[in-house]
Amino acid sequence: MDQARTTISKIFNGEPRSYTRFNLTQNMEGDNSHVEMKLSSDMDDEVEANGVGESINQHNRPYYPSKLNQRSPKTICGFVIAILFLFIIGYLIGYLSNKSTVKNEIKSDCPVFSEPTPERPQPVYSLDWSDLRTLLKKKLTTNNIKTNLKEFSSVSHQAGSSGDEALANKVMDKFRTFKMTPWTDEHYVKVQDRGTSNKVLFRGNAVGTTEGYLAYSAVATVEGTALYAHYGRAEDFRRLRELDVDMNGKVVLIRAGLLSFAEKVANAASLNASAVLIYPDPLNYEINDDTALFGHVHLGTGDPYTPGFPSFNHTQFPPAESSGLPLIPAQTITIKQATEIMSKLGGRTLPDGWNDGMLWDTRLGNEDDNITVEVNNVLVQRKIHNVFGVIKGYMDADRYMVIGAQRDAWGPGFARSTVGTSLLVELARTITDMIKNDDFKPKRSIVFASWSAGEFGSVGATEWLEGYLTSLNLKTFSYISLDEVISGFDSFKASASPLLYDLLESTMKQVSSTVDATKSLHEQFAASNWEKSVMEPMSLSHSAYPFQSFSGIPSLSFRFTSSSKSYPFGTFEDTELSLDRYTSSSTLKLAKTAGEVAGLVTLRLVHDHLLKLNVAKYTSVIRNYVSQIRAKVESRQMVRRLPSTLSMQWLLSAQGSYDRAASNLVSVIHNSDLDDMEQCRIINDRIMRVEGSLLSPYVSPRESPFRHIVLGSGSHTLAALVDHLEAIRGNLKSADVDQFRNQFALATWTIQGCANALAGEVWNMDNEI
Questions:
Q1: How far apart are the first and last CA of the chain?
Q2: Which tens digit of pLDDT belongs to each residue from 110-132?
Q3: Which of 52, 217, 562, 625 would be 718's cystine partner, CB 3.0–4.6 Å?
């Protein structure tokens, strides 16, 4: 210890121009330490001899005592403290710098550059589902719905009118109040206004006053003999053909109901009819006999003069027309006009089942029953606005669902548009309030949309879809329509993608019955076979149809309706009083129940980690079509109507591929960590691909816009394959074996493509075709 003290003392007493080196070594033969110390000038080298106790050679220099030895112990202590303080500061700076720097270890067998590993998304925890359900029912109130119904009621708000624009501004203001950052989408569309000189003559005499009209009718004046064709369905015209009735050049009288006006006119035109008159039969409608009927006859949706592309202003497209525009004139007539014509028709008696309680004794018509139809509708351009508001998700904000409602109407349109718009606003208020005050955090986004020009065939909605199809197809996972949700009280009907069937059924079990609070909606309307009791095909008249069949977005449309009478949609009798009469004064109660159905479906789709879309449901739907096609193909091959080289192997293989992909996804879900948000997003992306993959990529969106092979329309669909096989069996003119084989092959690969998309990555695909 004395030697150590001496050494330290000499360090501080050294010459400033010199430095001191010392060596403290352990004596191998004892416990004493041996200290060797040397003073040296700069650049002098030290030479040490080996061994303990040997002499140390050094340069001969005079020794100059340092002035440090003349300083007091207090000064020396201050130097020591200063050095220690600087040492501690340096150490802390180095430690903090090292901690803040990410050091990537580079190994010899790894590339020098590597991207940083992304942080794993953390789950967002929200309210429990039972609490969320209770909260929605509590906050969605009839008082608020009643207030909205009064605020959004309007006598005149036809698409593009000042009344329509005023309602759009009201919706926009509501969304602003809810802090939803609203925006609008503007389109310039072509619609038809009623011609001032539209008229109908029977046996040369004018029949009443023609006030209603059918938009997009051909503008023409035609004359022909009358022919009654019941509802104008394909089976009705088939019945007439079986009776050897000539339909060429006839003016066909058709009862409103069961299918859209456009489909009725298209069926008649396909059989070379010259014109169509559509009337509301008193057996179906409880309206005044002089009430005019309005509608459209475009066999499609959207602006028919910009087929397949959006009607934005100044778009430089060559003149185009939808293939769904009729080539024959079509016109509506009142009950009074229909009575004057049909009560005087001669000819053959009606087929069995057609005279089902009609108020007049009518016949099919004969050669003396001439009718002249004059249609002078005027094509005009209108500016329309869609209004949007969004509630952004807390995790996957770029994945969203859409809730929409039509805003315009021919007249008051209380059931057609006012109820839907009011529910849209109330659901937006309810959900934003749940987020603000009750800590609800939706994982995905919700877009609320108020559409214009719905009366002309979902024009506003379709133009929006056409304008943003590439992004919507990848990011939108569902659409819910609030149009016509109430038109009666004793029946509940819904149309939806098979992916949404299970979610709708479970929702109906969680909503109270409209007549008995102790029971559920499911028990009230679907106690036995719920699909058979509730579900119906989604047709062209449903406002959700373009989302489902044009864009490939799983969609839902539902309604409380009457099982006996048709509601007077498309007339000036669509008022609040009429709706109260059809609902037995329970409009508000039904509106709240409808809001709960739409709200619970919405919340379930944005609350859970995984989307509540059942991909396995399409398995049975596809299998059913394949089974029908297989039976009919084998039957036609037996009678040599189809070549034996046409094999079912590949269609069956495609069906099997989808079955296996769906089963595999179910297995993946069961074996996955659902708290792993990245894994959930991957699974959800696979689910979202299914509906869009069922859009046939082999047909033109302009010629066949509804490309969905299961729920769409056209020769590319599976239903069309079944119909074509029937035509081949009957050796009809429409039968074409080569065309069928081509459609058969393309449908097969569309199913296989859907299976590939569902399977996920390319190395998981099962292609043997």
A1: 91
A2: 343 344 444 445 555 567 888 99
A3: 625
